Amino acid sequence: MCRWIAYRGDTIPLCHYVTEPAHSLVSQSIQALESTAGTNGDGFGLGWYDHQPEPGLYREIRPAWSDENLRYLCRHLRSHLFFAHVRAATGTPITRQNCHPFAGSGWLFMHNGFVGGWPRLRRRIEALIPDELFPSRVGTTDSEALFLAILGAGIDDPVAATGRVLSQVSSMVDEVKQPFRFTAALANGHDLYAFRYSINDAANSLYYRESSEEILVVSEPIDRDHSRWITVPDNSVLIARHGTKARLREVPVLRLSAA
Amino acid sequence: MCRWIAYRGDTIPLCHYVTEPAHSLVSQSIQALESTAGTNGDGFGLGWYDHQPEPGLYREIRPAWSDENLRYLCRHLRSHLFFAHVRAATGTPITRQNCHPFAGSGWLFMHNGFVGGWPRLRRRIEALIPDELFPSRVGTTDSEALFLAILGAGIDDPVAATGRVLSQVSSMVDEVKQPFRFTAALANGHDLYAFRYSINDAANSLYYRESSEEILVVSEPIDRDHSRWITVPDNSVLIARHGTKARLREVPVLRLSAA
Amino acid sequence: MCRWIAYRGDTIPLCHYVTEPAHSLVSQSIQALESTAGTNGDGFGLGWYDHQPEPGLYREIRPAWSDENLRYLCRHLRSHLFFAHVRAATGTPITRQNCHPFAGSGWLFMHNGFVGGWPRLRRRIEALIPDELFPSRVGTTDSEALFLAILGAGIDDPVAATGRVLSQVSSMVDEVKQPFRFTAALANGHDLYAFRYSINDAANSLYYRESSEEILVVSEPIDRDHSRWITVPDNSVLIARHGTKARLREVPVLRLSAA
Amino acid sequence: MCRWIAYRGDTIPLCHYVTEPAHSLVSQSIQALESTAGTNGDGFGLGWYDHQPEPGLYREIRPAWSDENLRYLCRHLRSHLFFAHVRAATGTPITRQNCHPFAGSGWLFMHNGFVGGWPRLRRRIEALIPDELFPSRVGTTDSEALFLAILGAGIDDPVAATGRVLSQVSSMVDEVKQPFRFTAALANGHDLYAFRYSINDAANSLYYRESSEEILVVSEPIDRDHSRWITVPDNSVLIARHGTKARLREVPVLRLSAA
Q1: Mutation site for C-interface testing, chosen from B16, B70, B76, B83 by largest number of C Cβ within 10 Å
Q2: How high is the ipTM of this complex?
Q3: Contact (Cβ atoms closer than 8 angstroms) between residue D21 and residue D5
């Protein structure tokens, strides 16, 4: 079911949050505490913004806990906004293209959750991706399809675009009486958005903490001091725009099928 | 552009043709002679029939020339009908799911060639795959899509089914003024079919040799004695049904757009 | 710390014991019950005897639980004597050459345990490998070094050879006040030996069950019915020679340093 | 036989020389022009210095030409001194630990060449590595052994240390009548050394070019304009210390066995 962290703040080496904390994301890859999957060993990925217009990506199919390259990169890469993700696959193959984060149009996206009934709904969900973005579909996950659909749904307003796609997908899973979990992060190098949403099922865990220098959003706390972490409520989006304090609002999902 | 071999005959260890000949398929992975791509190092695969109803598959993203597992498997696996393939990618990612052969419904398929304009035509070609086979689409290549379309086009008559799909795809590439090369093998454990077809381009090389005990079809000869090999003519299919001598016939393509 | 199984008996597909049981070795790769390491995701391997004089090997650095090739091979490979191993690394790199089993001189070997103080003792233990076997040292584990030392210590009597090497290594770890765990299997295509030994530490778990048709030795039971399994006692070797009932004897270790 | 480049100068993204030139190192991975091995597809590596005291490393067993991570890292990593290497293995396994560059004690090292008779000489050459550095021997190549021997031979004077090790190894290969090729680079974050040496064989190609801003040393020119490149003569070391113009001197090898 995956675990992830998203950071925005001062420029720091990625190791600060990916490898060094007591219950770092790399520790969670071998033993997560709040995840359906105790082991998140089906690949991992880093996405980061720096001096280049497009974010960098490093994705690998090996477990994060034994990857020497990851250790080096986390010490040497510095960023003011980065994503890191460890994967527990829910049916799609272990390939780099199926590892998170995904990058496109200057945006990064990563996801923890699943679309219930994916094999049956895949065609309909892939149909949400506009033609001009379809060549960017290089993997086969539900997550990448959701990202490309969101990019195509008016990414200038990322909360509205995500709401539109979640509305459509919620309606589809309702039809086939399946669950849908979507705990995801989206960023463009400046602004960071984190969604915690589900229908027909419990939502996956999501926490954040914020200071004047930085905001950190995590699937589960990376240290033992849980009092420092705020739970993102169900069906909420955390909006952390550059230069403003983070705020929570409801995910704007229109339940088409609820009528 | 890939190189491949297909064998049917007495049960033999795969090494006889995959690793041992002077210009074996594994040698061709590092230096092919008749291929657009001199190096075929973008993964490889084996598919074989034995005592099980479904064929076995071993696919790997490393180059064939350095894979220790391949050496062991070729000595220890025995089969009366097997495929082996070394890949030179034409744009799609290097994943096991994008390596050949592909297996489904008891059939094996492998391909050397490409659909020109694939990023533009992909949706239309994927639409040829029937819903019930779409969950088997685990990779992203044009080759796998063609195979699933052929499976769905009436595989009981594999030449007709392939002809139908080639007709449809030929019409699509004509529309977008692109080439299409299809040099491919198809088998069901008893019967072996090998196609050499192209439009708007030269066809990829294909040869075979036949004895009373066996038939071997290859992208290029695996030894220096070229006199032993018969060229499969352009736009032909070699039909090697169990218990009968191989014969050649024209690929039954209806050029819809030629009107 | 690894988990493994060793089988000798009628010729069967490997899936019978590697992938199909409720708590199969592949299940143990993601969640072992009696191992120090709950997750054994640092690579895996198969070794098997068949019609060839030398055993086959398939070793891979990915976790066993997600390897499609392993599933196919376990259904298609048949053997009368095979080893399967899932690895939890204890410091040496994740490479195929460091995955078990190891093959040499017609023998297979696999190990669960470790030599305490390996970085300090490595040179002395590697010095136990005779010159003529040293080119076979293709990895960097303590396990492979122990195997090559045993091969060089008179493998015609494998229990005595192993006893000799364990005596020497026990003396070395005593010197540096380190533990040593050695739960290992050794086979030559006919005879199967399984050791459970440790000094300065508890021994890793080992069980077996035997019928008229077969013997199966496992790190932990592969089903829920623990009453069917016999514990191999500490410091014992299970000797299962071809055509005779298995018997237990003490591992013939001479504690040189105990004086 | 490998190809490599070494750069020191202004801080630049690695893509400038690793991926962008017409005959870049990545192009050489699939088709080198002056190498015994036309294909250098047996893994690759990057080593770079930045704000951290120790260099970064990224090594991978896949061919460089198809690695998406390499493309991203070359655009996003910036360095004033970096190494890049594409490997053509000469007998040792394809593992990350056997890929170049190697890092230790703040130094980077990479090698193109081989020690003839390595399986016979390996023990004697590994014996040149001091005990305190032996735990750093995580791979099995001749190259890594040479590097650790050089580190142990007085790395404060890297030319003398290298000369000492080359003298010893030259004497060993003379004894067993084998060739030895050593075209290698060594750096500490400030100073760059490039050796071109061989005995009983021709030396591998090596070129450099220098401007007021930078020095680039390459196995073969990365562009078509060969007039810009100076050949490093046989048995020479190029010494490019920080803040001084590069100069050539003879490799200080004492041929012990020549007497």
Answers
A1: B76
A2: 0.95
A3: no
